[in-house]
Amino acid sequence: MISTVSVMVAAEIAILETNDYFLKTNSSLRVNRMSQEDLQWCMHISRQSSFTLEWSNVGQDIDHYEHYNFCFKMFFNGERPSGCCACRYIPMERKVVIEMLQSFANEGDELDGRMTAYTLVTLLYFLKEISGLGIFIENPVNEVILQHYMRNFHFKDVFGDGSLLYKSADDLAYLVPEWLEQNQCI
């Protein structure tokens, strides 16, 4: 079983490596662990969106040792998150579960249309550090988002009802860089 310290350390290393990736690609994005202030912003801005998510459910687990919650921020946007992800790590299965993923980016912003790919980059760095095997996505918010995950990133529908998707880390390690290059993110 993986110790609690190693999950937290892997998360910190993944954040450092993702920020290094953003720096090398001249991105205006950076990623950091989700703070209580970030969570409050997510709850506030999500209520104003057409896809309201229950970010308040993340509050009790924000600092839990098996949870890896992070935000993307743009340099010019100050400290407000442009997108957030709530995940938990399942040590026995060595897999990450994306519980919530939401972009607050304005149309045309760097994160617009790239939230999933950048989230997967961050999670791949995490899985590399923790020797993880793959990523689950729980309950995509609607059919359009479900199809996005399946079409663009080739996630498989585990139960055939769209409630749980899965993709191995090895498969994503090849697919995500290709998607980023094709969509001029590199």
* N- to C-terminal distance: 36 Å
Assess the beta-strand content as a share of residues.
Answer: 15-25%
Largest sheet: 7 strands, mixed
Helix percentage range: 25-40%
What is the chains' assembly state? single chain
Q: Tell me, what's the shape? A: globular
How confident overall, as mean pLDDT?
89
Instruction: Give start-end ranges of low-pLDDT stretches.
Output: none
How many beta-strand runs?
7
Summed up, the helix count is 5
- The H/E string reads HEHEEEHEHEEH
What is the strand arrangement across the widest sheet?
1-2-3-4-5-7-6
Q: Output the radius of gyration.
A: 15 Å
The helix/strand class is alpha+beta
In short:
This protein has 186 residues and is α+β, with helices and mostly antiparallel strands. The protein has five helices and seven strands; from the N terminus they run H-E-H-E-E-E-H-E-H-E-E-H.
Write the layout of secondary structure elements.
Elements: H1 4-24, E1 29-33, H2 36-47, E2 67-74, E3 83-90, E4 95-103, H3 115-130, E5 134-138, H4 143-153, E6 156-157, E7 164-168, H5 169-182
Parallel strand pairs: 4-5
Antiparallel strand pairs: 1-2, 2-3, 3-4, 5-7, 6-7
Would you give an account of this structure?
The protein is of the alpha+beta class and 186 residues long. It has five helices and seven strands. Strand 2 and strand 3 (83-90) form a beta hairpin. The longest helix has 21 residues, at 4-24.
Task: List the main descriptive attributes of the protein structure presented here.
186 residues, alpha+beta, 7-stranded mixed sheet, 5 helices, 7 strands, 40% helix, globular
